[in-house]
Specification:
CATH topology of the domain at 304-423: Coagulation Factor XIII, Chain A, domain 1
CATH architecture of the domain at 304-423: Distorted Sandwich
Order of helices and strands: EHEEHEEHHHEHEHEEHHHEEEEEEEEEE
Helix content: 25-40%
Distance between the termini: 58 Å
CATH class of the domain at 304-423: Mainly Beta
Strand content: 25-35%
Largest sheet: 6 strands, mixed
Low-confidence stretches: 271-294
Shape: globular
Number of strands: 19
Structural class: alpha/beta
Mean pLDDT: 83
CATH superfamily of the domain at 304-423: abc- transporter (atp binding component) like domain
Length: 447
Amino acid sequence: MSGSGEVPPALVVEGLSKLYRRSSPGDQLRTLKSALLEGTLTRGLAPGEAITALDGVSFEVARGEAFGVVGGNGSGKSTLLKVVAGILKPTAGRVEARGRVAALIELGAGFHPEISGRENVYINGAVLGLSRRQVDRRFDDIVAFSGLGDFIDEPVKAYSSGMYVRLGFAVAVHTDPEVLLVDEVLAVGDEAFAHRCLRRIEEHLAAGGTLLFVSHDLDLVEDLCDRALWLDRGRPRLVGEPRRVVDAYRQAVAEEEGREHREAKARGEGRDAEAAPAGGEPAAEGAEEAEGAGEAEVLRWGSRRAVIEDARLLVGPPGAAVERYHLESGEPVAFEIEARAAEPLDDFVFGVAVATPRGVECWGTNTDLAGLEARRFAGRARVRLVCPSLRLGPGDYLVDVAVHARDGNPYDYRRKLFGFTVTARDRGVGLYFPEHRWEAEGGVEWG
């Protein structure tokens, strides 16, 4: 229950579970009469009869927040969105959404193939809660957004799959929902349409709308979302800051692939492989904490194939720099990293990111983005990111340091490893403080 003055969340999911009845041979031949006589429609599911799609999922999404959901195929992502949208009824738990909900899940599922796109827009709009007059007012915008133009009066059965989805998306986003549910629809259609969809989603968020976003595009989840949930076989593994959630998911996928590779290798090598000690990557420090959905902030995660032992800020010109955590905007700095690889690596990337204490990302880069090709990393190493002039605005900053594989799988990600403070002689607003001066000609004088 929200206290007085607090804005209630736009979406509440509490203890959500969804079970499906497991099929058995001959089920398709059963009649409604036989099912009623045996009571299989009215009794609960016995152990072994059910497939668990969702199990105890709980989270809240604030108004104006973008909340991502990641996980492998069969993890329950689409089922979650369908339950939130009201398409499916939960087995247990509750969903509370405040305001109009638009679900971009199975776009165009209600389109009739024999009638035109124009007629389907009116029918689909009515299904989504719009009156005919409201569809009239938005029709031209819907057609323009879909990009169908002259095809709008052609029967839908003549549309390509991309055209079909574009029209469905266009109708759904023009219902002006408070809560927008999106499931992988950006993967359909050309590049231009995907950009148009992203702009429309960003406009929705800028106007105070809420987004629940399911995608296999992990980079897009990191860029678009404020928080994320990792679902694993229907159960919540982690809820939190998108980068940490995505990294934990990537690490689990990599470990599973490594385990499958080792098992396949063992089967191929026969008895000798079975007698050999099992190899494997060291477990991530704090892995137990990372797998929970608790509120405690996790500041370090990764497989530890390489380890960040320390990092520091050096201020001053090369050869004369000293360790210092207070600097004036524009001074030369170096972010120095001490790292160690337990075994030789030929796939490694070092990265540094700077953010404000409120989590606003100011600047970040890594060796891969700089075009440095990884060849060998073994034993101890010292790596520096040198910045001849760090022109950040006055304020406090926190630094993340990481070493990871090129595909993003983290070896050691250390969040908020150290902080520093920036001052400036001139006053200004913002995070970037470029070198500058004011000039004027004519009737302007300054003291």
